[in-house]
Write a structure and sequence with these properties.
Length: 519
Amino acid sequence: MAGLTPGSLRGKIIVGFSLLAGTVVVSLLITLVETSLIEEQIKAQNQSHSLLNAAYEMRRQEKNYILYSQRADLDHLQSAIREFSDVLEDSSTYEVLGPDVRALTELVGDYRRSVDLLTSPSAESDREATKTAVRGKGSEIIERARAASRMVEYRIAGKLSRLKIWLLASKGLLAALAVATALAIIHLIGRSLREFQSKMDQIATGTLRELPLTARDEEIASLEKACNRMLREISLRQVYLLQSEKLASVGTMLAGIAHELNNPLSNISASCQILLEEADRKGRVCGGSGAAVSLTGGPDGNSGMQRQDPPDELLVREMLLQIYGETERARITIRTLLNYSRTRPSEKSLFPLLPLVRETVVLFQGKLGKDVTVTVRIPDDVQVFGDRHRLQQVFVNLIKNALDSMEGPGAVAIEAAEGSPREDLEGERIWAPSSLLTAKPGHYVDIAVTDTGSGIPAAHLTRIFDPFFTTKDVGHGTGLGLFIVREIVDELGGGIMVRSEERKGTTFVLRLPTRWGAA
């Protein structure tokens, strides 16, 4: 597992505590071994005590028999000898005495034979020597049993001493290892964190250069990579913000230019109107300025006068009409730009949708290619409740995106109807309040903006409403258009849905309330 390698903070912590746990386990195993050895020695001591007690009992019965020479005392002595022999023949006794068992067994045999001599009539003359031999062999047996008991006690004392020393040493070792592990972990982690903190301090001073990936720990390295992604995103957003500021400046300048152009265009339009009125006035004067006059019969049979302008005057009139028409067209465009760029407080009201869409389309007349058409199919009676200026900004962004998606011939269609021209707001990406999705028909209007452009890749559909997300080159898009659309639609109490397929086009559907509180 990558997270458990020594090259990670987690791995270092786990390695340190694993060493500590391993030391604890080894210490416990050694303690268990020493304890089991002490238990064996305690068993051996019990066996040596049994052997010594049997020897003492044998000597006591020996003394009774030698003093009183009673048959019952002899039987007790022989029984004690058998009990001592049984203890001596036990396998545990061999673990206590080792090779000395054989010598002690031979000594017990000699002792038994000496006791048997005491009961023999033939040994009556030498009875005292036999008693002396029995006492000597009995004393030797006692001494050997005592020696075995002392040897076992020495072994137990040595084991206990070693166990005590080991326990103290293991505790000291564990304490030292725990302290060393803690210090090592603190040093390793602290060093990595200090290095990362110094890099964060550089960022805090305003430096947006990417961090060098020098961290040896996986967690810190992942943080450095995340910070680099954040720094790249911040740098990119700074570029977008600068571009937005430039666009804002251009918008302010455009509003000023439009205001300045509006005045001379108004003068030109007024002059054209005066010239046209003057030409019409002169045309009512018969024969004026060399004009030809013909008398013709009217529809009612009466005679009437009809002015026939000379060819030059007809040309002048036609040119004046063209100048007037183009001037009015320019004035409408400039007035729309001024209305769009003017900052005003948000005011919601019920207003007809068709004029707003037509005014917005006028803004893009200069951007439409010869093979690109914009069609508006909105009934005259469709009304929307909201902020007119904010909703126009929504249409500006949607129409601009539609036109940008078409590299050649194409079409943009804007249609709307109260209720729902489609079954419901269903698509790849939906952003709408639940109350609007379940609203009754007649309380809302669905507005569809459809283009035949390149479409949106399926992988991008989940991010198109995110701020600063764009697939355009730097300087050609801020990534805020659809984000602003979503924010405005949400502010108006509406919803938005998108359907798109690559190389087949995109459809955005806005669902907006048609009355106060409809959403």
